[in-house]
Amino acid sequence: MPELAEVEYFKRVWEPAEGSKVIGASANLDKRIFRDIDNDEFPNCLIGTHFEQSLRSGKQLCFLFSSTHWLGLHMGMTGRLKLSDDRSEDFKYDYLTLFLEGHRRLVFQDPRLFGKVLYHNSRKAPKWWSCLPGELTSDSFTYEQMDAYLSRRPKSVIKSLLLDQGGFPGIGNWMADEILWRSRIAPFVRVGDIGTQKRKELFQKIKEVCFDALAVIADGWKRPPNEWLFNHRWKDKGICPKTNKELVREKIGGRTACWSPTWQTYR
DNA sequence: CTATTTGTTTATCC
DNA sequence: AGGATAAACAAATA
């Protein structure tokens, strides 16, 4: 589930514990989420450090401990972060726990294990953190950049391309459907068939959906308004808020796309 | 029992 | 070489 705004939400779950000292650590290292951990000392190497900074880029999270300990977390499909206290009882799927002074715990849980834990100890930021593409919400993501990216992939199906983290970091399945719905583009359209005017609209809607998602979900995980596609897309016989006609769900590029055929008429 | 899942990586084909 | 596509990953849920 976690896309841009959900990941930002999880970042803010841990953030209030910044400044705390780590006094214990436990990890189920046989779980798949630790497949890229190559440091034999992990997670004990974090004991004694101070939790300093919470960072996010696209769907990637990075937490910095005592200036040199970089902990990367990716939520995969079912990952979530908790800030637990002594009264918390549900430990199922808690595969990484950092015990803090003051009886609090930083917890990463991930039932489906598609998530990933990364760790690096050095003054300099590791490559998995420093080499990520710029944020879609930043001014550095320009129409020209997007246009060039699309032009290199004329044969791609637009829905699939929007899920490409190299070009559109943070976008996931629901955001991609929301963007195409707001742009009135059918999900199976080939990128080369999208003209300049429509590309400009697409660019605006990408920005809009990113900002909307952050405002609603990253900030307290509020329920999105019914004017979005969001609240209708998972329901059987869901109704398009624009046309009051039934939405359609179909597999495109291996993922379920939800769209409104009478509204998304750009083919 | 079968089908499905809001993500990424890898293999394979073009 | 680089892009397009499908399968694999794991486990819960319907």
Walk me through this protein's architecture.
The protein folds into two domains: 4-130, MutM-like, N-terminal (N-terminal domain of MutM-like DNA repair proteins), CATH 3.20.190; 143-259, Helicase, Ruva Protein, domain 3 (Orthogonal Bundle), CATH 1.10.8. With 267 residues, it is an alpha+beta fold. The longest helix has 23 residues, at 196-218. It has helices spanning 4-14, 127-130, 143-151, 158-162, 173-183, 196-218; strands at residues 22-27, 51-57, 60-65, 69-74, 80-85, 94-100, 104-109, 116-121, 248-252, 255-259. 24% of the residues lie in helices and 22% in strands. It is built from six helices and ten strands, in the order H-E-E-E-E-E-E-E-E-H-H-H-H-H-E-E. A hairpin with a 3-residue loop joins strand 6 and strand 7. The strands form three sheets. Strands 1-6-7-5 form a four-stranded antiparallel β-sheet, with helices on one face. Strands 2-3-4-8 form a four-stranded antiparallel β-sheet, with helices on one face. Strands 9-10 form a two-stranded antiparallel sheet. The chain binds a DNA duplex (14 and 14 nucleotides) through helix 5.
